[in-house]
């Protein structure tokens, strides 16, 4: 038996990058997973189905409350209640380092719309379901950059700092209804998009050198913490930020 048998999970941004590993890890523990993304989820769904899991792919821009509501309705119709929400969707891989004076207003607003308002919209949508069942696991994804103030990425750093603060407020408000809200703060993860980006080798190696554990971080380094926070093993943990980065940032 899996730790998450009988549970339904939503993973936003699960069509590519870290989200694929999150979705696969949850289904490996018995959860049925709805993957919400702005790009096709077909490959992720096919991989999960081929391994015997249950998954549903839905087109959803998490910054649009109407699309969130539609995706939630489709998830409920397919799987029933919602027990786990992983707020993973974010703007990052397509951002490039630049002085904050050179970040345009449109770039800043886009980062906050997806990275901050997206989790807000998703939690606001699922909270009535979780309140009614007096149970829920919400896992927000922030970043270790919020503790380090990484240069050249102010819009991203600001958005992830906001996710950390929202996690604490959400945990405070939802705790009385049996809902746990926690946050994972990864380091720089070697997704396909990061590995494919030109001119990043020195940055990648510098990231590894700056950790206590001298290695590049992979998506699989995060899945153990994710499953723990989604499972009954963490039922008395809420409002916490767990940094999973090999020791680059201490919190």
Labels describing this entry:
single chain, 251 residues, alpha/beta, Rossmann fold, 7-stranded parallel β-sheet, 9 helices, 45% helix
- CA-based gyration radius: 17 Å
Q: Looking at the chains present, what oligomeric state does this protein adopt? A: single chain
* SS element count, helices: 9
Annotated CATH homologous superfamily: NAD(P)-binding Rossmann-like Domain
- What is the approximate shape? globular
- Main sheet overview: 7 strands, parallel
User: How are the strands of the largest sheet arranged?
Assistant: 3-2-1-4-5-6-7
Query: Quick check: average pLDDT?
Result: 93
Percent in strands: 15-25%
Q: What is the CA–CA distance across the termini?
A: 34 Å
Specify the CATH class. Alpha Beta
- By CATH, the topology is Rossmann fold
Number of domains: 1
Helix content: 40-55%
């Amino acid at each position: 038996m899996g730790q998450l048998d009988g549970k339904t999970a939503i993973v936003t941004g699960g069509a590519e990058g870290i989200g694929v590993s999150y979705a696969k890890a949850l289904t490996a523990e018995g959860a049925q997973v709805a993957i919400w993304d702005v790009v096709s989820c077909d490959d992720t769904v096919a991989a999960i189905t081929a391994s015997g899991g249950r998954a549903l792919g839905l087109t959803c821009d998490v910054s649009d409350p109407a699309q969130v509501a539609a995706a939630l309705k489709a998830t409920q119709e397919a799987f029933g209640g919602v027990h786990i929400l992983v707020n993973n969707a974010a703007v990052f891989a397509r951002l490039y380092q630049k002085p904050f004076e050179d970040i345009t207003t449109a770039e800043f607003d886009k980062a906050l719309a997806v990275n901050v308002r997206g989790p807000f919209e998703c939690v606001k949508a699922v909270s009535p379901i979780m309140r009614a069942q007096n149970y829920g696991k919400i896992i927000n994804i922030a970043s270790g950059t919020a503790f380090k103030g990484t240069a050249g990425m102010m819009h991203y750093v600001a958005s992830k700092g906001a996710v950390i603060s929202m996690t604490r407020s959400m945990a405070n408000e939802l705790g009385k209804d049996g809902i746990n809200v926690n946050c994972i703060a990864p380091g720089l993860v070697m997704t396909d998009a990061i590995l494919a980006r030109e001119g990043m080798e020195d940055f990648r190696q510098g990231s590894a050198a700056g950790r206590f554990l001298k290695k590049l971080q992979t998506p699989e380094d995060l899945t153990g913490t994710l499953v723990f926070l989604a499972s009954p093993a963490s039922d008395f943990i809420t409002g916490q930020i767990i940094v999973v980065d090999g020791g680059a940032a201490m919190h």
